[in-house]
Amino acid sequence: MKLLSRKASCNSHGQDSSYFAGWQEYEKNPYDEVKNPQGIIQMGLAENQLSFDLLESWLAQNPDAAGFKRNGESIFRELALFQDYHGLPAFKNALVEFMAEIRGNKVSFDSNNLVLTAGATSANETLMFCLANPGEAFLLPTPYYPGFDRDLKWRTEVEIVPIQCSSSNGFRITESALEEAYQQAQNRNLKVKGVLVTNPSNPLGISLSRHELNLLVSFIAAKGIHLISDEIYSGTVFNSPGFVSIMEVLMNKNYVNSPVRNRVHIVYSLSKDLGLPGFRVGAIYSNDKMVVESATKMSSFGLISSQTQYLLSEMLSDKKFTKNYVSENRKRVKQRHAMLIRGLKNAGIPCLESNAGLFCWVDMRHLLSSKTFEAEMELWKKIVYQVGLNISPGSSCHCIEPGWFRMCFANMSEQTLNLAIQRIKSFVNSISESNNISPNQQYSNKSSRRKSFSKWVFRLSFHDRETER
Amino acid sequence: MAIEIEKPTVGLSKVAVSDTHGEDSPYFAGWKAYDEDPYDELCNPSGVIQMGLAENQVSFDLLEQYLEKHSEATNWGNRTSGFRDNALFQDYHGLQTFRKAMACFMEQIRGGRAKFNPNRVVITAGATAANELLTFILADPGDALLIPTPYYPGFDRDLRWRTGVKIVPVHCDSSNNFEITPQALEAAYNEAESMNIKVRGVLITNPSNPLGATIKRSTLEEILEFVTSKNIHLVSDEIYSGSTFSGEEFVSVAEVLEAQNYKDSERVHIVYSLSKDLGLPGFRVGTIYSYNDKVVTTARRMSSFTLISSQTQQLLASMLLDETFTANYIKTNRERLKKRYQMIIDGLRNSGIECLKGNAGLFCWMNLSPLLEEPTKESELILWKSMLHEVKLNISPGSSCHCSDPGWFRVCFANMSEQTLQVALTRIHDFMDRRKAMKTSN
């Protein structure tokens, strides 16, 4: 008899994908300014390392918070024993207020509708368990975060059906793409339970437009299904049009009394906005009492350490701190983003125009030897091994067009980012030298041909994708 | 605007609407009664005393003293990148120092009679998560785990709810002090077979909750033989291993494996936690220790859904690597638990109540079967209700632990002060006096 379960033996954990393979290469040969300057620079990890000094100075000024003390008195016992899955009330209150602050206080949240989980990874899986049965499906716009294949499908046995988005309209979600995805699910005999979007998007780095959000709400209203909005990057929106939360859209008079309000759920986390992925702080927000109740019980399998809940309740209750943090962090993300965009442009590499996130969605289609995913892999390998940058290939994010890559910019120092940019420039120069065309010329030639290519590319790449699967 | 006709909407999943979370059982009902009327020495001296919560509150002072002396355990020390590195650390392998600390602590608890390799330690947010995770790995939906009764009521949720796995009880009873026998194991296995259910493993809790007793070495050997002969797994939940009253009586399955040179060990997995031994349930610290490489790798990947806060890992790494601290803690904690146990056993005996002979845990297994009107579950629940509403003690009825002998109750003694325990014992004494008086007057 087979000794382990099907779940243990299958590979839905997704760890064989290129997303993780690049990571492995980096681990074998990691860049270090002093000890290993030829090593691989990690640009595949969407971490926020830009604002630690703000956190560190707060901690220095508020030593009680990490020392189990409240107003000088020890509350160690209280915290050590606190395992209530409803969560520390002071922390939940502080967290919902922080979430409201990030949304410019245009919406407010009720802490009774918030469920704490050990990270957004846990929150997303928990919502799947609550909303879908094994074999049912959720629709996700592509490209999407590779981790979803594991988080949403592995133990839940839920299926993901992609909502195909393409560069022809800046990867925006369209009504026809939604309908097509829904139809696809029907054809595969999959019952659709909902749509999951990431807003701002990972890997695109764009916040969803009001139009897209309205489309989504009409769509789920019409189909009678759920909508999950993973808003873990909401604090990294640095440019107009600014962040519009799905909750803001629901405030519209058409939806105020609609049952659709109860089918919209938000996922949040402090891993990106506050740069604290190690602390495992995630949350589910829902207006549906049953979802909150069920998710709360399920959170027993992934509670946040009370030690950490307390520290963060103190930090996030400090309104002066949070106000300053949110605005300063935004500035720094914006500056880093601009730096990478400029550097890539100088190398003749365009990016999707973005206003959020800790990464850029980079267009290297013109560097492909052919418009195929094989060529994308070829290019990716060159970039990892020869150029020494671990970036994430679009195929690992289920992008339907080959040649796009996600490059992170907030998980390293400025010097390291500069070095990465230099390496890319050299790489592009070496290609054009061998092709005998100047990089700028290459860029303008390609862009004028790109439009007529795009439809052709779309059809070609779709076929390739099918055979790859 | 025209009235919107709502199409039938998709509801929630079957898992969400099922009641396998088990929160409707008396185990939780008693908790509610306590929440509504909690005992307080000053403010509510006639309130319900919580004796249904297996918490360890007897050794906090030792932890507090440690923290006083070692601020670097919580303030990230003097390294400038201490906080940053810790905050960024989300590697599902867990902090190396933390894994080492857990392995060392587990060795110390077992008096060095078993060795633990830090590379086999998988971290999870509590034993609750560890048990569920193992179930996902070892069994498919519809399969079963065999669990000796009586068992911790939480297993019904932890092992079954989201996994779809079943529990088939291995019946143990008072005729032989609730010890697990090969016959009982065989009977449970056959019962599963007859229902066309595939058994994937046996899960034991050692020391046992709710019995408060360690499993004998010979029994462990028999269980190992059984699982090997059926080619199934053995999960040994040893979360109370540090709460034995003497150092010598606890035998871990790890020791049995070491003694047989780790033959057949790839089917054995140990669950541990700091919630009971260290009294830190709020910190969510659990581990899986597996002798099976594939299980370790898979469990590690799955632990992404339930990692321990790196802030907490750091604190505990520091604390548990301090062998002076841990040696003293283990010894002192044991002594205090033993003292509490003695207090409650004596107090109950003075009231004419006997308990199962225990040697570990935060509770005793009390025998009130002589008080039952009839030897039935219904009678037990009636008695339980009068304990709750009349005597104002929340204790756990054996039926909530799936005990096949009615009339047994789990009574916790380590989650309150000595004074409160005394109050509880007095209440029981008076209750028993009243019953005697009623009987004689009849």
TrEMBL record, chain A:
InterPro entries to which the protein is assigned, alphabetical: Aminotransferase_I/II_large (IPR004839), Ethylene_sulfur-biosynth (IPR050478), NHTrfase_class1_PyrdxlP-BS (IPR004838), PyrdxlP-dep_Trfase (IPR015424), PyrdxlP-dep_Trfase_major (IPR015421), PyrdxlP-dep_Trfase_small (IPR015422)
GO molecular function, one term: 1-aminocyclopropane-1-carboxylate synthase activity
Keywords on record: Ethylene biosynthesis, Fruit ripening, Lyase, Pyridoxal phosphate, S-adenosyl-L-methionine
Enzyme class: lyase
Cofactor: pyridoxal 5'-phosphate
Pathway(s): Alkene biosynthesis; ethylene biosynthesis via S-adenosyl-L-methionine; ethylene from S-adenosyl-L-methionine: step 1/2
Swiss-Prot/TrEMBL catalytic activity: S-adenosyl-L-methionine = 1-aminocyclopropane-1-carboxylate + S-methyl-5'-thioadenosine + H(+)
Record PANTHER family: 1-AMINOCYCLOPROPANE-1-CARBOXYLATE SYNTHASE 9 (PTHR43795:SF10), BIFUNCTIONAL ASPARTATE AMINOTRANSFERASE AND GLUTAMATE/ASPARTATE-PREPHENATE AMINOTRANSFERASE-RELATED (PTHR43795)
Name of the protein this chain belongs to: 1-aminocyclopropane-1-carboxylate synthase
From TrEMBL, chain B:
Keywords tagged on the record: Pyridoxal phosphate
GO terms, molecular function: 1-aminocyclopropane-1-carboxylate synthase activity
Domain Aminotransferase class I/classII large: 49-428
Pfam families named in the record: Aminotran_1_2
Keyword Membrane on entry: no
SUPFAM superfamilies with a match to the protein in the record: PLP-dependent transferases
Family: Belongs to the class-I pyridoxal-phosphate-dependent aminotransferase family.
Protein name: 1-aminocyclopropane-1-carboxylate synthase 7
